[in-house]
Amino acid sequence: MHPILRNLTLVALVLCAVMSTTVTALESDQYYTWGRELSDSTDVLNAKVRLEIDRVLDVVNSKKSGQGVSCERVVERIVPRFRKFIFTDIELWAVNSSLVARIPATAEEELEFRKVFLYRNTHALDVGTKVPPSPTIEMHGVRMGTDKLAHFFSEGWMYYKWYRKYRKSGASVEDAERRAIRRGIRWERLILGSASSGVFSIGDLEANYQGLRFLAGLCEGDSPALQRSEAGWRYVRAFDFRDYVSPAWDESYQPPIFGKRRWKKVRPALADYCPMLHDPQVIRQRAEYARRDRDSPTKREVRKLVEAGKLRDPRLFALDAQCGTAEAVEPETPVDLTVRPRS
Q1: Cα(189)–Cα(310) distance, rounded to whole angstroms?
Q2: Residue 154 pLDDT > 80, yes or no?
Q3: Are 91 and 98 in contact (CB under 8 A)?
Q4: Angle at 82 between CA 180 and CA 112, to 5 degrees
Q5: What's the distance, CA 187 to chain centroid?
Q6: N- or C-end of the chain: fewer Cβ atoms within 10 A?
């Protein structure tokens, strides 16, 4: 395909994505934060989420019809508090609030960040990187782009809608989750990731799935988080991102899969971080991630595609592999989708 036609196609795909879901800051760079101090913002973001949920419930309960509103309808009113047509409210709040520690934190720091971050090598028609990069925050000891907040609520909502559809058609919880994850992977490959930015982010997919878990838990299970009383709907548990965040949300630990064109531009920038692999703080962080990391439904579905030859092995894009500190990946080798520090 002619390059101009290819870029026009990408523009069309991105516009389709905008029309159907919320646009987030597309890429982030956790490598940039290595060796830099960053305070944990879990408690602040937990309080923000709980405040917004309580505000919605106050409105629902203040209306005469509030008692008759189903739990699913309450969820449909909660979600818009965190997502809008263009950028998600929760991400914009995290990017601008003085209560949330982030890197970069100021306009001046962002200008410097743009000069050196992982996706600095772009061109005028590079559609996938025209949205501002996400700063990095820390929650539950895991560093991540603020875009993961958007994925949790926005794409998590998309997963949840698919999940509900499959459940209503008779699918089990496990099957409905698996089908939603597979559909999300297709979106990541065709619109939200690979096609628009050349980046297939497993971390984004993990955040999407955890958003599904959160939303499904509002009304389902033995002890749903939303319960109705004489006074109206109540959120009966403490919201805590610690229940959902995993080391896979840090893309310096769980590397994305890059398209050929994107990889050609990212690889030289990635190699600049090789010396940091010997930094004691980085070694401790990666060891702690490896201790806490677990398998997940998302990783299992991605692993199936890698083993079937439909996705490249993400370990090929890990910093270790670029710095000569990781062994070569053989095609027949079972794929573990995490990158672990060498002893």
Answers
A1: 11
A2: yes
A3: no
A4: 100
A5: 14
A6: C
pLDDT of residue 339: 41
Instruction: Name the pLDDT band for 214 (thresholds 50, 70, 90).
Output: very high
As a whole number of angstroms, the longest Cα–Cα distance in the chain is 66
Q: Which pTM does this prediction carry?
A: 0.86
What's the gap between Cα 222 and its chain centre? 28
Q: Which two tokens stand for residue 216?
A: 């499904």
Average pLDDT taken over every residue of the chain: 85
3-state secondary structure of 124: coil
What b/e string do you get for 138-160 counting C-beta neighbours within 10 Å, with b at 16 or more? bbbebbbbbbbbbbbbbbbbbbb
Mean pLDDT of all residues in 333-341 = 42
Q: Distance (Å, rounded) from C-alpha 157 to C-alpha 207?
A: 11
Residue 146 DSSP label: T
Integer Cα distance of 144 and 30 in angstroms: 7
Residue type, 138: E
Residue 87: both structure tokens together:
């950028």
pLDDT for the residue 23? 46
The answer to whether the beta carbons of residues 121 and 265 sit under 8 Å apart is yes
Give the CA distances from residue 239 to residues 142, 164, 235, 244, in Å, rounded to whole numbers and listed in that order: 18, 22, 9, 10
pLDDT tens track for 282-328: 999 999 999 999 999 999 999 999 999 999 999 999 999 999 765 43
Helix, strand, coil distribution of the chain in percent, nearest 5: 60, 5, 35
Q: Rounded to the nearest 5 degrees, what angle is found at the Cα of 243, between the Cα atoms of 241 and 245?
A: 60
Going from the C-alpha of 147 to that of each of 85, 89, 203, 226, 254, the distances in angstroms are 15, 11, 10, 26, 15
CB neighbour class for 74 (10 Å; exposed up to 12, middle 13-18, buried from 19): buried
pLDDT of residue 19: 40
| Whole-number pLDDT of residue 196 | 57
